[in-house]
Amino acid sequence: MPIITQSKSAAVVIDDAKCIAEKGCTVCVDVCPLDILAIDEGRKKAFMKYDECWYCMPCEADCPTGAVKVNIPYLLR
Amino acid sequence: MAYHAGAELANLECYQINPLIKDYNGPSCAYVTGPFGGFTANNKGDRFIECDYWSGQMMLEFWRELQSGNGPVYLKMDHLAEETISEIETILHTNERPSRGRFHERRGNDYRKRPVEMHISEIGFCSGHSASGVWVDENARTTIPGLYAVGDMASVPHNYMLGAFVNGGIAGADAAEYCANVDLAAFDEGYLAAEKERVLAPTRRSDGLTPHEMEFKTRRLVNDYLEPPKVTAKMEIAQRRFAEIREDLNELCASDPHELLRALEMQTILDCADMAAAASLYRTESRWGFYHLRVDHPQTDDENWYCHTMLYKDENGRMSHRKREIDPYVVPVEAEEMAAYHQLRVKTPQAAE
Ligand SMILES: Cc1cc2nc3c(=O)[nH]c(=O)nc-3n(C[C@H](O)[C@H](O)[C@H](O)COP(=O)(O)OP(=O)(O)OC[C@H]3O[C@@H](n4cnc5c(N)ncnc54)[C@H](O)[C@@H]3O)c2cc1C
Ligand code: SF4
Ligand code: SF4
Question: Which uninterrupted H or E stretch holds B117?
């Protein structure tokens, strides 16, 4: 069967103005135990790539510039 | 992994089922609030269990309360003093699950005003909180020489962090001794190549099924058919449906390393689902309260089933079972203490006083 993609709201929000991924930072990507964050190679900013967040928050706690905000996913709010 | 390597697993029908916060993946948490005066209550605000410590019998009383007109079940703290509640908040909202405060805040749920709604979790295998897992002896040895197991996946009941650390130390020391006396084993190149092919197969397809939908379907069937109370006919349906999913594995696709990880995890979840069904069908009695409540075998049958049940892969690759005798207790337990497990319901409900 062919595979389709479906839109989802991203519970983990990155403030692009604060994110310093262009300087080589990958802290949030490295600390996420679920491997769901990634750096957008075009924009050089972190983003939530997979809708599998556990709202455990090391990404938010460890980001050196305070760019990450973890929201409780909509289905659980 | 241990199962496929040929290790025996013990008492898998003794599921792990926990009281969690409704809609939130975290304990409610009676362990933290208990010493401060918080407790598990019904919708009338009354205690209905003698002890909030997680056990199969405690979960049975929890489930009965949910089924009765007294549900849902709550964690009650609104009777506590302000300084006690702030202390609880500091622990629960910064330590155990730091997003917990955020979850409650969005729903306007303040411990001072309203109790926290709780619910029954999905089933799982986890000796850390229950009694099932890869069988180990007192040196953390599995039934395969040189293979060790510790922590949540080993059959050491209720060991949590402390047990994981202690048994890790014991296993390490024993393994070091074992390794000093054996050479590296020879291995079969053909087996290695076949295993590599199995692992990477989902990356070689671009059309088919995604790990997410295959995992979701497996979990849904587990919830529909394996969650206690266990019914033989339902568990047999589950086995047939799991076999269908197994046939679909040759359509499983992974488009990147993350999806490959999920594809492999999904296959492990399917193995665990099959093991949960097979182990539950093997033990034809009820034991451990809610964890192994078989509606068509409601009695505890010590004559035939006061034993461990061992699940393993036989020479033909089939899931098989056998009984294993229980070793004598190191510290004798009084009959009266043993019976305490079965007397968890509060005897005179406060409402009837
Ligand atoms: C919400 C919560 C609260 C808890 N609170 C407490 C507490 O307050 N006090 C306490 O003592 N205990 C607590 N526990 C229990 C405690 O956390 C666990 O018992 C303990 O962490 C188990 O450690 P472990 O090393 O056995 O397993 P884990 O920490 O689960 O480690 C297993 C590791 O194996 C990896 N893995 C799995 N499959 C594969 C594979 N195929 N290949 C490679 N790697 C793999 C996993 O990614 C994971 O990192 C809590 C548990 C939870 C979930
Ligand atoms: S940790 Fe913060 S700064 Fe670094 S990549 Fe992630 S969001 Fe950007
Ligand atoms: S909250 Fe946890 S799971 Fe979610 S993105 Fe952050 S680190 Fe990953």
Answer: strand B116-120
User: Domain containing B52: what range?
Assistant: 19-121
Instruction: From chain A, pick out residues whose CB is under 8 angstroms from the CB of B24.
Output: 72, 76
Q: Which residues does chain A have within 8 Å of residue B202's beta carbon, measured at their own beta carbons?
A: none
Residues β-bridged to residue B148: B141
Encoded amino acid at B310, one letter: M
C-alpha to C-alpha distance for B68 and B113, rounded to whole angstroms: 24
Which pair of structure tokens corresponds to residue B258?
A: 């993350």
Residues 240-299 of B with CB under 8 A from A: 251, 253, 255, 258, 261
| ipTM rounded to 2 decimals | 0.94
Provide the domain count of chain B.
Answer: 3
Specify whether the CB–CB gap between A72 and B102 falls below 8 A. Answer: yes
pTM: 0.95
Which one-letter amino acid corresponds to residue B158? H
Closest Cα to atom 4 of ligand 2: A25
Tell me the residue type at B147: L
CATH architecture of A20-76: 2-Layer Sandwich (3.30)
Q: Is the peptide bond before B27 cis (omega within 30 degrees of 0)?
A: no
Q: Are residues B168 and B314 in the same domain?
A: no
Position B330 in a domain? no
For residue B130, the one-letter residue type is S
C-alpha A48 to ligand 3 mean position (Å): 9
**CA-closest candidate to residue B36, choices B65, B75, B73:** B75
Q: Is the peptide bond preceding residue A59 cis, with omega within 30 degrees of 0? A: no
CATH number of the domain at B75, please.
Answer: 3.90.700.10
Contact B311, B319 (CB under 8 A): yes
pLDDT number for residue B353: 46
Q: What confidence tens digit (pLDDT) does each residue in B203-235 have? A: 999 999 999 999 999 999 999 999 999 999 999
- What residue's CA is closest to ligand 3, atom 7? A32
Q: Is the same domain home to B137 and B195?
A: no
Question: Nearest chain B Cα to A33, which residue?
Answer: B258
Q: Crossing angle of helices B257-282/B232-248, nearest 10°?
A: 150
Among A54, A60, A63, which is best to mutate for testing ligand 3, by the most ligand atoms less than 8 A from CB? A54
Q: Are residues B8 and B143 in the same domain?
A: yes
